[in-house]
Amino acid sequence: MTSSASKVGESGLVKTVEIEGRGRALVASQSLRGGQIILTDSPILLYSAHPLSSSSNAYCSNCFRHLQTCSTLVSCSSCPCLFCSPDCLTHALSSSHSPWACLTLSLLRASPSLSLSHSERQVQARFLVAAYNLAIVSPSHFHILLSLQGMALPSSDSDAPTFLHSLLSSLSPPQGVAGFSVELTTALLAKDKLNAFGLMEPPALAPGGERSVRAYGIYPKASFFNHDCLPNACRFDYVDTASHHNTDITIRLIHDVPEGSEICLSYFPVNETYADRQKRLLEDYGFTCYCDRCRVEANWKDDDEQEEEQDDEGQVMDEDQDEQMIGSENEIEIGDGGGENDFPHAYFFLRYMCTRENCWGTLAPLPPSDSDASPSNLMECNVCGNSKKSDEDFNSDEDRLSVDD
Ligand SMILES: C[S@@+](CC[C@H](N)C(=O)[O-])C[C@H]1O[C@@H](n2cnc3c(N)ncnc32)[C@H](O)[C@@H]1O
Fold first, then answer.
1. DSSP state, residue 21
2. Ligand 1, from 26, 149, 261, 292: best to mutate by most atoms within 8 Å of Cβ?
3. Which of 101, 287, 348, 390 has its CA 20 to 30 A from that of 294?
4. Model confidence over 73-125: pLDDT tens digits?
5. Among 168, 190, 192, which residue's Cα sits nearest to residue 180?
């Protein structure tokens, strides 16, 4: 580890260091307590996760607050975008919804070739508009975006940059953006893929089902967190409940972390199998994970070697579920060996996984009253927002915490 340490976050609780094979990383500058907020970060760029062809107008086009909760809706005078308040619209007109962004989104919406494209490509088009708009309205933030990790990965959709770049060039090239080229477009798409955080839809909009993403954001300081399949920190956001800076995210520690230890997030829900995690990390993030959990699970029986049996209806059934640690009822399944050595991280799942059906969120203690206080025994889920005492089942829906930071 080389420590060219620059301190970031709340009062310098974490610092960036360079770790061989992992790039930049954030480590604890001092010993830290579970529940401590180590970083609050604001996005330099946000964009909708909905395809351009979608008629959904459920969220403010600037701050992505759910519009159902807003009484002062206004629309853009030149396009169908809605905003939660006149102030948000005014702010957007000089930032995220500049005249160039407004015109370009309208032209893209009307483009037959883009409307025939799959939804992922339409969302990538939204990102590129947001990124090139950033170059126009805030060159310093655009440089921060360029400084983030991200090279095109061999597995990435290689047609996307060429197609989207030629579309933008023909419809509405961003005037005055130095270096506007297919190479820059390729690099921007790669940076988005490696660094974007998803702001989720509120749980009530997806009853019983999985929550989907409403918007993506680039959070420059939080982008330095590396991944671990058993993270020691997790991310919270309060898009609909915070009255100011509602798109800020906070990173909170799940448990105590000693000075000098790396602080990691999980880039996706922790219930995924070893094979799925490795595939996703390699294809989407370009690395193989050798975290403690992966080192243990690498010795478990391979998915492909598992016996598969045909059930009576001829469906393929997985009999051996030792890879699928968290079943549909959030059960812990232990591997063939059955012992603690096979599954030393069972404790993590029992203590820090949300038990609400289909949530798969992570629990972190509420922030301690001061840095010397013991961690709170009230745990909050970073996905559904429910709370529970550390040794209890979840409270009812009425116990959902409302936090306004
Ligand atoms: C969001 S960035 C994290 C910060 C990054 N290390 C940097 O230097 O900017 C994601 C990238 O960091 C690297 N990374 C993250 N977690 C890693 C891990 N557990 N092992 C190796 N590389 C990792 C991968 O290159 C990944 O694509």
1. T
2. 149
3. 390
4. 999 999 999 999 999 999 999 999 999 999 999 999 999 999 888 899 999 99
5. 168
Confidence of residue 57 (pLDDT cuts 50, 70, 90): confident
Output the residue whose Cα is nearest ligand 1's atom 15.
Answer: 226
Q: Which helix (H) or strand (E) holds 349?
A: helix 346-352
* CA 258 to centroid of ligand 1, rounded, Å: 21
267 lines ligand 1 (CB under 6 A): no
CB 227 near ligand 1, within 6 Å: yes
388 forms beta bridges with 379
In this prediction the pTM is: 0.87
The secondary structure of 280-305 as a DSSP string is HHHHHHS-----HHHHHHTTSPPGGG
Q: Are 296 and 342 in contact (CB under 8 A)?
A: yes
Q: Is the pLDDT of residue 405 over 70?
A: no
ipTM of the prediction = 1.00
Give the CA radius of gyration of the chain: 22
Predicted confidence (pLDDT) at residue 221 exceeds the cutoff of 90: yes
Q: Which residue has the tokens 């260091």?
A: 17
User: Which residue lies with its CA nearest to atom 23 of ligand 1?
Assistant: 22
378 Cβ partners below 8 Å, 6+ apart? 365, 366, 387, 388, 389, 390
Ligand 1 touching residue 64 (CB < 6 A): no
**For residues 327 and 356, what is the distance between their CA atoms, to the nearest angstrom?**
12
3-state secondary structure of 311: coil
- The closest-lying atom of ligand 1 relative to the alpha carbon of residue 224 is 4
Specify the residue with its C-alpha closest to ligand 1, atom 22. 22
Asked if residue 149 has its Cβ within 6 Å of ligand 1, the reply is yes
Instruction: With a cut of 60, say whether residue 397 has pLDDT above it.
Output: no
What span, in angstroms and rounded, lies between the C-alpha atoms of 174 and 192?
19
| Residues 6+ away with beta carbon under 8 Å from 238 | 246, 403, 404, 405
Residue nearest to atom 26 of ligand 1 (CA): 285
Specify the pLDDT at position 69: 79
* 235 token code pair: 């991310």
Higher pLDDT: 23 or 154? It is 23
Residue reference for tokens 């419809």: 171
Quick count: other Cβ atoms within 10 Å of Cβ 262?
18
**Residue 314 pLDDT exceeds 90:** no
Atom number of ligand 1 nearest to Cα 24: 8
